Amino acid sequence: MAITYVLIFVLLFHIILFRKMIFRWNTISIFFIATCIFSIIGILMFPFMRMYAGRTFWTFQLELITDADVVKTQLLAVGGLMLVLYSYVFGMLLMYKRVECIDHFRIKTPIKNNLSNVNFYFMLIGIFGFLFIYLLIKRDVLLTGLFDGLIGRQPVALLESRRGITSNYLYVVITYNLLPFLTIVALFLMMKKKTLMSRLLFIGLFLVSFLLILLLFQKRPLILFLLSLTVAAFVFKKYINIKEKRIRTKKEKRKARRRTILVLASLFSILLLLYYSATTYRFDNIFEGLFTLTEIVLTRVFGRLAIPAFCYVHYFPAVEDHYALTNIGMFSKIFGYELYPDSKVLFNHFTRNKKEGSLAINSIIDFYGAFGYYGFFTGNFILGLLLSALDAFLNRLEKNNINIIFIIFCFVFAYYLSQASLARSLLGYGFFFFMVAWMFLQKNFKIKMRP
C-alpha cells in the first residue's frame, strides 16, 4: 500500500501546485476534476476497500485482479493524468510563453448575439420532422421501455428498448448532441428577449429534449444536459447585461451557495430516482430505500470506471494483444477489418453471469489498452497538447452567445474524455457534431474572434 500513499501525495501536491489553473472554467479543469472523481479516487481507494468492492460488484470476478495489477493500474492512472497535465502546461508555454490560467467565463463586455435565426429555425424544422417520423415508426419500442421498463421497473425491458431506440445513429446524434445545443440557444433567446414566444420556444425544446434523453434510459446524458443548462443560465444571467461591478454582500454569497447546494441536491435526487427505476429492489421503509439508493449511486460514481481500469490492465496484453484502432466502428467500416468490441469482450471475460453488458474506461487507460506503454505515453502527451490548443483557440473567440454555448459543449467533450476514449469522445459522444452546430448557427457563417 506504500505506493498508494505516495500516489495520493503526488496527486494532492499537483492539485495544490496547479490550483489556479485547475479551478477555473477551462477544458483541462473539467477533464482533471472529472477524471479524479470518476476514476482516480476509486482506483486509489481499491486496496483499502477490496472486500467491499468484491461484495458490491459481486457479478465480476475481481479475484482475477492481482496485487501487481492494482499497483500497475494506479501508476498508469495517476501517471497518465500527470502526463496530460504537464503536456497541457507545455502547450501553454509554447503558445503564451508562460503558464496561462485561462478562464473562459471571465467576460468583460455584454454577451452579443451572433445567432443566425434562419439557420436556427431551419435546423429545428428539420430535426422535428425527422423525430416525428422516427418516433412514429418506433412507437412500440418506446412505449415498452417507458411503461414496462421505466415505470414497471423491469431492467430487461429497459435494455431492449434502449437498443431498439438507439439503433439509428442520426437519432442518437440529435438526442445526445443537437437538441441540447439548440435548447441552450433557446435559453439565451428567452433570457435576452423575455417575450412570450421565446419562453414557449424554450419550454417546448426543454421538455422535448428532457423526455427524449430520459427515454434513452441512460442517466449520464440527462444529468449532463441539466448541468449544461444550469451553467449556461448562470453565465447568461450574469453577462447578458453586465452591470457596474460591485462587491457582493454576505447575504448574496449565502444565497448563491444555497442555490448551488439546491441544484446539486436536485441532480442527486434525479440520480436516485433513475437508479430506483432501473432496479428491482424492494424496500421496507423510505429510510432503508434512501440509504441503499445513495450507496448504489456512490459506488457507481466511484467504481463504474475504476473497476474496469483494473480489468483492462489485467487483460492486455496478458490475455490478448493490444487492440490498437480495431475497436473504432467507423474505421472498421472504411477499411473493411473486423470490429473488436473491447468493452464487451472484457465484460464477458470478467462477468459471472450470462447477461450482456460492457465496461467503460477513460481515455488515459484506453491509450494503454489500445497501444501499450508507447501508445500510453504518446497518446496522453498528445491529449494534453490537444486540450491546451483547444483552450487557446476558445480563448480567442469573441464572447457572443453561440461561441459561449460552444465553449460549454467543449466542457462536455472534456468531461467525456474522462469517461471514454478520445475517438469515441470526438465522434460517438459528439464533439464533431457540436462543431457542426456551432459553425452552422453563426450569423453569415462567420466565426468572430476577439480583436
TrEMBL record:
<keyword id="KW-1133">Transmembrane helix</keyword>
<keyword id="KW-0812">Transmembrane</keyword>
<feature type="transmembrane region" description="Helical">
    <location>
        <begin position="169"/>
        <end position="189"/>
    </location>
</feature>
<feature type="transmembrane region" description="Helical">
    <location>
        <begin position="261"/>
        <end position="278"/>
    </location>
</feature>
<feature type="transmembrane region" description="Helical">
    <location>
        <begin position="6"/>
        <end position="23"/>
    </location>
</feature>
<protein>
    <submittedName>
        <fullName>Hypothetical membrane protein</fullName>
    </submittedName>
</protein>
<feature type="transmembrane region" description="Helical">
    <location>
        <begin position="117"/>
        <end position="137"/>
    </location>
</feature>
<feature type="transmembrane region" description="Helical">
    <location>
        <begin position="196"/>
        <end position="216"/>
    </location>
</feature>
<feature type="transmembrane region" description="Helical">
    <location>
        <begin position="222"/>
        <end position="240"/>
    </location>
</feature>
<feature type="transmembrane region" description="Helical">
    <location>
        <begin position="30"/>
        <end position="53"/>
    </location>
</feature>
<feature type="transmembrane region" description="Helical">
    <location>
        <begin position="371"/>
        <end position="394"/>
    </location>
</feature>
<feature type="transmembrane region" description="Helical">
    <location>
        <begin position="73"/>
        <end position="96"/>
    </location>
</feature>
<feature type="transmembrane region" description="Helical">
    <location>
        <begin position="423"/>
        <end position="441"/>
    </location>
</feature>
<feature type="transmembrane region" description="Helical">
    <location>
        <begin position="401"/>
        <end position="417"/>
    </location>
</feature>
<keyword id="KW-0472">Membrane</keyword>
